Amino acid sequence: MSMEQTALDRPIIPTGTHHLVQDKYLVATNEIIKLYTKVDEWIEDRSPGGIVYGLQRRGKTQAISFIREKLKTKYLDELPIFFIPAKHKFTANEEVFYEWLLQWVGHEFPFTGKKNQKFDRLSKFLLEQGQSSKYKQIVMFIDEAQALLEAHYKWLIDLYNYLHEYKVMLVVILIGQPELKSNKNIYVAQGSRHIVGRFMLKEHQLFGAKTVADLQVCLKGYDTLEYPEGSGWSYTKYYYPDAYLEGKRLEGCATQLYEAFALVRQENGLGGKMEIGMQDLTNTIKYALVKYGAESKEKKRWIDLETWVKCVKRSGYVDSEVSFIVTK
């Protein structure tokens, strides 16, 4: 970034197309970094899998997106990585299950043939992917895995065993809500070692931001991410160009932002220890930039405590916390 840049050099980006507005960006948090370290250990240890669980809006899906990108950077094209998104409704239908997997691993014929043919097509497709890999491994993330039935695990075991016969390791990372941990406990109590031993032996709980330091790590991402890439214009600089050039950084707002969340909690009678979900946190920061930055009618030179409070309220934080208390 050139020190000679001024606010007048601000890039011209069509309204509504900035990556921040379109949510086309990923920022790290302390929790995401911890999870990445854990998942990478599982892969390095050639573990068959593990579970990752946390409350709603804690950023599980965003965390997995970040981790997938980090893994791609580390392993380049030598490690096949597949993400299987949540299915609206799981049923104990083997053929439908194979179709779902075929579709999301990128097979061009997910719906052709009978049940056995679909398993054969899926297993051979993954075998080819694994054998062409330097590491002889395949990583498969399955989202909202608390909805998986026991039958689905049996079919995953069939797939695991097939690949294992050819010395290819299938690593299944199950992502879900706390019910996923409860499901593991039930399988342990039932003595279902064939399920727990393959896919649930490892586990990691994902939390939201709890400290000022947690907020600081996340906020720093907006000070460093650039759009357009390589332009020298970070998200913070783009939305608050004058303040940025004066030395202001979102990273320095961590204490004030923490106070804003605390004030909103107090105002709404939310007790207990504070834990801010990733979705609520990123929504809050996004509103502070978009709704009060350089392109807003209500633009401010910099973000004060009152503005942070408004953004916290708009983020959906209170509704999600109240919902959690009601359903707990």
From TrEMBL:
Annotated ranges, domain ORC1/DEAH AAA+ ATPase = 50-181
| Domain of life (superkingdom) | Bacteria
Supply one GO molecular-function term: ATP hydrolysis activity
SUPFAM superfamilies from the UniProt entry: P-loop containing nucleoside triphosphate hydrolases (SSF52540)
Family annotation (Pfam families): AAA_22
What protein is this chain from? Answer: ORC1/DEAH AAA+ ATPase domain-containing protein
Q: Which organism is it from?
A: Paenibacillus phyllosphaerae
